[in-house]
Write a structure and sequence with these properties.
The protein is built from eight helices and 14 strands. It is α/β, with parallel strands linked by helices.
Length: 229
């Protein structure tokens, strides 16, 4: 994992709690635990959490009643663990605000994979996409789909801007014609690469005219590389 994530494990079975703790700790998580609802409430307000694995049947109550309290504080994904298998129990868990439902016994590696998948999904939903991308003297406005060199608008057409954006994100990397075409045109390259060649030609001319300091190199049999002159 690229950055340390925090998880709360709420489980009254010490063997299960120990096993889950070991797996998530080895995966790089900061792991906090609670054996009942009272301890879980304390952890909830003390720690910023990225995920919660919640056993539903606890010594001091049914954790379904606790889920709305969690949702009032955090949007962290909640994965519910239970020995109950009735569909009505599962529906009650989702309706209360849970994100996933795993019945005991379960595969611990699958549990860890589901938690990681939910954290990635939550991150995508909460992160604001960048509005601008800079590449040397080139600035791409990703909202208006306009490119500027030293403040001057390059006057790029739609496909030209998309191509420059792709090149800027993959600077100095050779990309195949097939990859470029499928990314920009959203279709497989079916032999005729005229549209791609023409777009590359026009973009290269505009890069030269604006003295950008960049060029698009073609490698026969390999593809295109966006790089400094």
């Amino acid at each position: 994992m690229s950055e340390r994530k925090t998880i709360l494990l709420v489980e009254d079975n010490p063997d299960i709690l120990w096993a889950n703790h070991a797996v998530f700790q080895s995966a790089g998580y900061a792991v906090f635990t609670a054996e009942n609802l009272a301890e879980a409430r304390q952890r909830l307000v003390q720690e910023p959490l990225d995920a919660i694995v919640l056993d539903l049947i606890l010594p001091d109550g049914n954790a379904l009643d606790f889920v709305p309290e969690i949702r009032a504080i955090t949007t962290a994904p909640i994965l519910m663990l239970t020995a109950l298998t009735d569909i009505d129990d599962r529906l009650a868990g989702f309706q209360a605000g849970g994100d996933d439902y795993i019945t005991k016994p379960y595969d611990i590696d699958e549990l860890a994979a589901r938690v990681e998948a939910f954290i990635r999904r939550e991150k995508l939903h909460t992160e604001k996409p960048p509005e601008k991308l800079s590449c040397g003297p080139i600035t791409l406005d990703l909202v208006a789909n306009q490119a500027y060199i030293n403040g001057e608008n390059m006057q790029l057409a739609g496909k030209e801007f998309a191509l420059l954006h792709l090149f800027a994100r993959n600077r100095d990397s050779t990309m195949s014609k097939e990859t470029i075409y499928e990314t920009i045109w959203k279709l497989p390259l079916a032999g005729d690469d005229t549209a791609l060649k023409n777009t590359v030609y026009r973009l290269r001319k505009k890069l030269e005219a604006t003295q950008s300091g960049f060029d698009i190199l073609m490698s026969r049999g390999e593809g295109y590389t966006f790089t400094d002159k």
